[in-house]
Amino acid sequence: MRRWIPYILLVLIALPFLVMYVGFFMQAFGEGMHLGIIPEKFGFSNFRFLWQPIAWGLGKTTIWVTLLNTLIFACVSGAIVTVVCMLAGYALSRIEFKGRDFFMILQLFLHAVPGHILLIAIFFLLFYLKLLHRIPGVALARASLEIPLGVWIAKGFFDSIPWDIERSAMIDGCTRLQVWYKIFLPLVKPGIAAVFIWGFLFAWHDFIYVYTLLPGTVKLLSTLIQSLIATEVIDYGYLAALSVFYMVPPLVLFVYLQKALLKVPIFGGKGL
């Protein structure tokens, strides 16, 4: 009985969350709900936004245009985070320069600062740079919030590469940039995937920056769901189905890149 007590406690703790997830998927795929949780049958009528314009006065909005906007926003943000963090991580890992330790501590401090308190400053910055209300400009602002910790993630991958590899490449005539591009990047592909997923996911589920810095006519999935919640009559099945659709791309990205994440390089072993 003592062996079962921890499992019973874990089940009791997890049960409310499991019930919410079950109810969420039943709302998405159920039709003719009784008491809000018991469906008469299961079907795909709630997913009609896949072939019809979005309801509730948003007739000119289609899910595919919104999905494209969200993918562009998340991919641009993830790409910016990846490029900056890969360069900065290599520099912090391999190059000795004055103020290096202070810069690394500063990155942790910047990551600890809530991004919401920078919203007004970023608004005026994008306004003067003429990037306000543009997806690339807002993606750049969103990426800047994830760069500090992303630099530490990238640095950890570069630290795992022995110095002998870099010295051998530089003896053969490679420059620092060539060592980074031709030698190190192929060895830290899991790090590239991890940093990109980091930047992509935080941009994908962002709401505050998108809602504030993009106009109402440029819909992303997060602001589209908020628009549907703000209506007088809410179709919870339709909303749940749209939320399921919102979950799919990050899951697909993780499944696609998980093989790269598992290929962690192992150095220093003796060959046969």
Provide an overview of this structure.
The protein is built from eleven helices and two strands; from the N terminus they run H-E-E-H-H-H-H-H-H-H-H-H-H. It has 272 residues and is mostly helical. It folds into two domains: 4-43, no CATH class; 63-262, Orthogonal Bundle (MetI-like fold), CATH 1.10.3720.10. It has a two-stranded antiparallel sheet.
Question: How are the elements arranged and paired?
Answer:
Elements: H1 4-29, E1 30-34, E2 38-42, H2 63-94, H3 100-112, H4 119-128, H5 135-159, H6 163-171, H7 176-187, H8 189-204, H9 208-213, H10 221-229, H11 236-262
Antiparallel strand pairs: 1-2
Short description:
The chain has 272 residues and is mainly α. The chain has 11 helices and 2 strands.
What portion of residues is helical?
55-70%
- Domain count: the total is 2
Assembly level: single chain
The side-by-side strand order for the widest beta sheet comes to: 1-2
Might you state the CATH topology name of the largest domain?
MetI-like fold
Strand content: under 5%
CATH superfamily of the largest domain: MetI-like
Overall mean confidence score, pLDDT: 83
Structural class: mainly alpha
For this structure, what is the CATH class of the largest domain? Mainly Alpha
The low-pLDDT segments are 264-272
Rounded Rg: 23 Å
Reading the helices and strands in chain order gives HEEHHHHHHHHHH
Distance between the termini: 51 Å
User: What's the total number of strands?
Assistant: 2
Biggest sheet, open or closed, and with what strands and sense? 2 strands, antiparallel
- Identify the overall geometry: globular
The helix count comes to 11
| CATH architectural category of the largest domain | Orthogonal Bundle
